Each structure stands twice: as structure tokens, then as C-alpha cells.
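In response to the reviewer comment on reproducibility (Comment 2.3), we provide here a single inverse folding case reported in full, input and output, so that an independent group could reproduce the run without further information from us. The C-alpha cells appear first.
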């Protein structure tokens, strides 16, 4: 069997190769392709989103390959048509957004993904964003570097808030949300969660309070978004929902930009309805130079870095290689994106 390790400069081809060798031994022939992300931004390629490289480059590298492990390669209808030997694509991401699943299924190619690969990293980053926004850490740092000592931040009206004793609402209670909740409880926070797919009894057993979204927004002094972006969750937090927040609340989004309607935020920050905003994801990535939130008060921003740890890259490679191993051995995939393909292939 020939396998293509189509890595990039984060989940590198050598990490994928090492994980595959640990899983499959020396038998498969493994070739490598290095895609340009993150040195070049990902984006739409053909009929898929958040991909890196070109269809032609990928099709050439896949010549004769039956299996590919990747993070960002663009698996489009054109690529599947050009690669008739391909039987399986293992994507080392929380969702296979760079794969045309309908085309993969038509061509009989099984697709898997890697849920939870960045959960610890993303959870830690969300907590960091909360603390940074609540305590004005980046603002104070920038002012001090400009030679301004902001001792006035000690004034009562300028003071931050603590996680200890605070009510924190988590919109989404999956792998990342659960870790965030565990950390928040250690800080002494009362944690509310809104997630229609979470088991309320299990959530209570884990020390959090499951509630409806509107109730969460009304009660939380800090709100952090951790839901998946789907057609149903697009602009889940819109202008009407934002008006439910208590005055001076802190809002954090390190999940997906599409969950949040960004248009009302500058005015809510200027008039104090929103106390602070911390973002790692955006409605446009990267935000343009004239983006209104660049000039709004009390905004913390990062360039979509929540999952950027070396451990995430190693976990991604290991989860993906394990799926490749299951496929090669004829076992059921743990994280199939189109399980009907494997089912159809069974005798």
C-alpha cells in the first residue's frame, strides 16, 4: 500500500510519517507532501473550504496512493476524479471541512476526522482570553511599554472582575467546553452550560448547571463560546441575544467567527453594555485594517491561535494514524465522516 502524508508547517509530514510507522510498521510506502499553511493562509480551494495547496499539486502527489493522511489538503471532486486508486482520507482536524464529503462518498472513499485533537490547547487558550479581558492584561502591557503607568486601573470603576465566585456561561459543552468548565470550577466559578446535545444529568454530575441559552446569557458575567458552527448555529449570538447580557459582561469567542454577529459589538463596547471582548476568531479572517473593532475599547484579539501547541500537532498525527491503521486492518473507523462507505464495502 502507498500512503501520502500531506502535512503542512504545523502538522508536519514527518510527524504524520512517524505516527504511521508506529501504527503500521515499515510495510507501507509513505511519501510526503508539504503544504504552505500557516505561512500562507488557508482558504477556499475548488469546492471546499479552509484548505491549503492546489488541486493539481495534490492530485500529482496522490498518484497511485490508496490512503492519505492530512490536515489541510483540498479533497475536491476534481481530486477524487483524478485519483481512482484512493480509498481513504484521514483528516487530522476536528471536522473534515477541506473534504467534499459528497464527492468522497460517490467515489467510494472513506473519510475520517480527529475530534478532540486540540481540546486541551483550545480550552487553556479560552481561559487565558477570559483572564486577559477581565483583568485588562494586554491593555496594561501595551500602555506600560509606551511609558504610561496605568495605576488608575486600581480605581473601583476601572477594576476588573474575578473568576472566583463569578457565574460563567459556556455556549457549547463538548470536548473543549468540558475542560473549560473543569478549570473554571477549580477557580471557584459557578458554571452554566447551554448545549441541546448535552445530557443534563451528566452535566449536573460534572458540577455544572445546564440551562437554556437565554437564561445563560441573562445570568452570566462572563460568556465563552464553544459550539460548532453549523447552519443552525450561524449568528447564534446575534444583536437580540447580546442585549440579554448583564451590563459590563465579558464575551469570549475562540470557537468559530460565524457563531457571533460582530456588527453590534463596537457600539456595545463603547456604551459599556459589554465590558470586554476577547476574540481568537472573526467574521473575516484576517480582519481588514478598517475593521471597526480595531478601534473599540476593551478588546483583546489573537490571530486564531487557540489550537497552536506542539502537543496538538502530535495528537492530530496520532489520531489520524490510528484511523489509517483501522482502515488498513479492515476495522471500523472510530471517527468516520461518511460511515456508509465502509458499510457498503463490507461483505
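Designed residues, in position order:
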Amino acid at each position: 500500500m502507498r500512503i501520502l502524508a500531506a502535512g503542512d508547517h504545523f502538522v508536519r509530514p514527518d510527524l504524520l510519517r512517524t505516527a504511521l510507522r508506529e501504527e503500521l510498521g515499515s510495510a507501507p510506502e509513505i511519501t510526503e507532501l508539504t503544504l504552505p499553511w500557516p505561512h500562507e493562509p488557508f482558504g477556499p480551494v475548488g469546492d471546499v473550504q479552509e484548505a491549503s495547496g492546489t488541486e493539481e499539486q495534490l492530485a500529482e502527489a496522490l498518484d497511485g496512493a490508496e490512503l492519505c493522511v492530512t490536515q489541510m489538503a483540498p479533497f475536491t471532486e476534481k481530486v477524487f476524479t483524478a485519483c481512482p486508486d484512493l480509498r481513504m482520507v484521514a483528516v487530522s482536524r476536528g471536522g473534515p471541512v477541506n473534504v467534499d464529503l459528497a464527492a468522497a462518498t460517490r467515489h467510494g472513499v472513506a473519510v475520517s476526522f480527529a475530534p478532540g485533537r486540540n481540546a486541551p490547547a483550545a480550552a487553556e487558550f479560552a481561559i487565558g482570553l477570559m483572564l486577559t479581558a477581565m483583568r485588562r492584561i494586554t491593555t496594561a502591557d501595551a500602555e506600560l511599554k509606551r511609558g504610561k503607568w496605568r495605576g488608575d486601573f486600581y480605581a473601583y470603576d476601572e477594576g476588573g472582575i474575578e473568576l472566583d465566585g463569578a457565574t460563567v456561561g459556556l455556549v457549547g459543552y463538548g470536548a473543549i467546553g468540558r475542560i473549560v468548565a473543569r478549570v473554571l470550577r477549580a477557580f471557584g466559578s459557578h458554571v452554566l452550560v447551554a448545549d441541546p446535545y448535552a445530557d443534563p444529568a451528566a452535566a449536573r454530575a460534572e458540577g455544572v448547571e445546564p440551562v437554556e441559552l437565554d437564561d445563560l446569557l441573562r445570568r452570566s458575567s462572563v460568556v465563552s463560546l464553544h459550539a460548532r458552527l453549523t447552519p443552525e448555529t450561524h449568528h447564534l449570538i446575534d444583536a437580540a441575544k447580546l442585549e440579554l447580557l448583564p451590563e459590563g459582561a465579558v464575551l469570549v469567542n475562540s470557537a468559530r467567527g460565524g457563531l457571533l454577529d460582530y456588527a453590534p459589538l463596537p457600539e456595545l463596547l463603547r456604551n459599556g453594555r459589554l465590558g470586554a471582548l476577547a476574540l481568537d476568531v472573526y467574521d473575516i479572517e484576517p480582519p481588514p485594517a478598517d475593521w471597526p473593532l480595531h478601534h473599540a475599547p476593551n478588546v483583546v484579539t489573537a490571530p486564531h491561535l487557540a489550537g497552536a501547541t506542539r502537543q496538538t500537532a502530535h495528537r492530530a498525527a496520532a489520531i489520524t494514524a490510528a484511523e489509517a491503521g483501522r482502515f488498513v486492518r479492515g476495522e471500523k473507523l472510530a471517527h468516520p465522516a461518511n460511515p456508509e462507505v465502509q458499510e457498503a464495502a463490507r461483505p
